[in-house]
Amino acid sequence: MATVNLTSDDFETTVLEPGIVLVDFWAEWCGPCKQFGPIFEEASGANPDITFAKVDTEDQQALAGAAGITSIPTLMAFRDGVLVFSQPGALPAPALTQVIDAVRGLDMDDVHAQIAAQREATPAE
Q1: Is the distance from CB of 100 to CB of 47 less than 8 angstroms?
Q2: Which domain holds residue 110?
Q3: Which of 16, 17, 103, 113 is deepest in the core (most CB within 10 A)?
Q4: pLDDT tens, residue by residue, 28-53
Q5: Nearest to 74 by CA among 105, 53, 50
Q6: What is the CATH number of the domain that holds 29?
């Protein structure tokens, strides 16, 4: 599957889809982003069951701000609409593969149970 470019118009609907969505927050002027870009693209070709998306932080500044992006590149992984991984920095290919394998291996029933438990433990303001 080809990498898709996300904007504030389609970010939420994309990351809330069932399955895995990896999002690379980047900018054209960013050296580490340029280093990570080909690694991300190669992983996209090798994992057609995963949605690979990019957000240009220069073009989508409000979206980057809303996502709490303070350093680029930042990789976020969503599974079934849940943010399960977020890390700034350019990952080498083996580390990206580890992230993909870990996200695939998550027990989402357990993740949803943990989220529910946290909500119950947090008093409403």
Answers
A1: yes
A2: 4-121
A3: 103
A4: 999 999 999 999 999 999 999 999 99
A5: 53
A6: 3.40.30.10
